Prior knowledge:
Structural class: mainly alpha
Radius of gyration: 22 Å
Shape: globular
Distance between the termini: 81 Å
Largest sheet: none
Amino acid sequence: MRLNAKDLAGAVLLMLSKAQRTIRANAKDLAGAVLLMAVAIVGFWINLEDHAIGTARRMGPGYMPMLAFGLLAALAALTFILGLFNGPDPLERWTQAELLAVVGGLAVAIAVTWVLALQPGLISRNWYPLGLGMLAGCLVFSIPPRWRKLGLVTAGMVVFGLVLEIGGLFLAIALCIGVAAVADETQTVKGTLALILFQIVLCWFVFIKELDIRVNIWPQF
């Protein structure tokens, strides 16, 4: 059986048409998956550079972050695959204020990181300049209402990383949840305090008591 160029081109177009009907991409899910995967990859790299991983029997300080970033990468991959078929849901056009918040957040993050890295003392050590720069960038990014939840939840996680070493696990959890709770307009003070207490007890039981992870639980000022 011989196929000429015209028949071959027709077959390819037919296959592409069928694929297009099957794949109904959800642009929002795909964009979110790419963002999550980028965070997981950067987190893996920083974790491997700064912390010993250890083994399941004797966990190093980088073991649990490795698992967390692994789960994040798996979630990103799953979200990307599902996003190919649960659309269409196109990305909404950004307003001028939202675009300025993204550009301004990046600019502020880079500027704060660069300035603090040049300062002598504790604040320029380890990853503090980068963490404080990310925190400043997240706060700028969260100014527009549509970016507020993403910006403040991310800021909460950054605060956790900044406070953990000096402030201890309990204070880091409290501040992380407190900052992230601001993103939810329906959240109450009582509900936030209850969530903080629950997370402190849960993390102490799982990571300190059962897994014996060596991390400060009280401030080390």
